[in-house]
Amino acid sequence: MDCRVAVRRALRAGPNRGLPLEGLGATATHRHFPTRQDVLGVNEDMLIAAVTLLQQPPP
After folding, report:
1. CA angle (38, 44, 46) in 5-degree steps
2. pLDDT of residue 26
3. For residues 59, 33, 36 and 47, what is the CA-based torsion angle, rounded to 10 degrees?
4. Which of 32, 33, 35, 56 could serve as 45's disulfide partner, Cβ 3.0–4.6 Å?
5. Is 45 left (phi over 0), alpha (psi -120 to 50) or beta?
6. What's CA 16's distance to the chain center, in Å?
7. Are the C-beta atoms of residues 44 and 50 closer than 8 Å to each other?
8. What is the Cα–Cα distance from 1 to 48, expressed in whole angstroms?
9. 20, 12 in Cβ contact below 8 A?
10. Which residue has the higher pLDDT, 50 or 5?
11. What is the pLDDT of residues 11-41, one digit of tens each?
């Protein structure tokens, strides 16, 4: 079995031109620990937790 991966380093533009983009991304503010129902089912509790968070107004 073969596996190929394409990797390209992305650099910033503007005032930070030339600096790498590594380290950017979303920071988690909530964490859901998998429940028994999540593991044995199809992530029911995780989906309910996500929907509950999405229904809250933004801070």
Report:
1. 75
2. 67
3. 30
4. 35
5. alpha
6. 24
7. no
8. 38
9. yes
10. 50
11. 888 998 888 877 666 678 889 999 999 999 9
**CA atoms of 36 and 42, how far apart (whole Å):** 10
Copy the structure tokens of residue 54. Answer: 């999405």
Given the structure tokens 């600096």, which residue do they identify? 19
Three-state DSSP state, 24: coil
Confidence of residue 8 (pLDDT cuts 50, 70, 90): confident
Asked if residue 21 lies in contact with residue 31, where contact means CB atoms within 8 angstroms, the answer is: no
- Identity of the amino acid at 21: L
Residue 37 tokens read as 């129902």
Tokens of 27: 């920071």
Task: Describe the chain by its helix, strand, coil percentages, rounded to 5.
Answer: 35, 5, 65
